[in-house]
Design goal:
Elements: H1 5-25, H2 36-41, H3 45-69, H4 75-84, H5 91-104, H6 115-132, H7 141-164, H8 171-183, H9 187-205, H10 211-231, H11 245-248
Helix pairs in contact: 1-8, 3-6, 3-7, 4-5, 4-9, 5-6, 5-8, 7-10, 8-9
Pfam families: DUF6198
Keywords: Membrane, Transmembrane, Transmembrane helix
Protein name: Integral membrane protein
Length: about 270
């Protein structure tokens, strides 16, 4: 029997809600399937906003660390790095422009950005450029390797922080989950296809591919899986949102730009 696209998408939504309820029963903070409006109504905003911007700031710092290591970048940053050689923009500016270009792809997916989505699109690029302006690339290979390793770990923590704030996925994460929801294709297949595509284009454009690219791909999922339960903000759905907005919301974000399946830690 063949399953239709809509039925596969519905099954994904149902599985997401079951995992959320299971996490709640286990006493763990759950990543709730909230619409953008419900995200703003879910409470604890000072804590969540602080965590969001700390996470986004650390994410920008970690991206600069990977760049300065010159040992390889994650797939999306290989693409960004490749583009910088062909346009009169800084790396951070390319990240910002690419983020809003990706957000345009949300339109046919009928996906709505949250506050965290817009902040992600702007702030990470700003912090990356600021960090690059003060961070010097080490000349010693050992130091470059240490910078790479620290950058990957920091990236995992940063991703968990901004995801755990529950204020919306990043543009690239949302594209991945939106394609999964609309097509019913496995999230892993969608993620792999997207990242291989941007990696190939980035490499052809001259982006840096190397040991860091492999290390990032192998370690970022487990790192986010480790950190996410420690930093996810515990929220309760407002009474008016239960059974309405929560049912229509995008499935719980799985950590990736990116190659992240945060939901797997549930």
């Amino acid at each position: 029997m063949h399953m239709t696209t809509s039925s596969r998408g519905a099954r994904g939504d149902s599985d997401s809600r079951r995992r959320t309820r299971a996490a709640a029963r286990a006493g763990r903070p759950a990543l709730l399937p909230l619409s953008p409006l419900a995200q703003l109504r879910a409470g604890r905003m000072p804590r969540r906003l602080l965590q969001l911007f700390v996470g986004l700031s650390l994410y920008g710092v970690s991206m600069a660390m990977l760049l300065r290591s010159t040992l390889g970048l994650d797939p999306w940053d290989v693409f960004h790095d490749g583009l910088t050689g062909h346009v009169s923009l800084s790396f951070g500016q390319v990240v910002i422009v690419a983020s809003f270009a990706v957000l345009l792809l949300w339109i046919p997916l009928r996906q709505w950005p949250g506050l965290g989505t817009v902040a992600n699109a702007v702030w990470i690029g700003v912090v990356t450029d600021l960090t690059l302006s003060v961070l010097v690339a080490p000349e010693n290979l050992t130091a470059r390797g240490a910078l790479l390793g620290a950058g990957v770990v920091l990236n995992g923590l940063a991703g968990a922080l901004y995801i755990g704030a529950q204020l919306g996925p990043g543009p690239r994460d949302g594209l991945m989950t939106g394609l999964h929801r609309r097509t019913g294709i496995s999230l892993r297949v969608v993620r792999t296809a997207l990242e291989l595509t941007v990696l190939a284009f980035g490499w052809l454009l001259g982006g840096v591919v190397g040991l860091g690219t492999v290390l990032y791909a192998l370690s970022i999922g487990p790192l986010v899986q480790f950190f996410l339960p420690l930093v996810t903000v515990r929220l309760e759905l407002p009474p008016t949102a239960r059974g309405t907005e929560s049912e229509r919301a995008t499935p719980v974000l799985r950590a990736a730009p990116v190659a992240r399946e945060a939901e797997r830690c549930r």
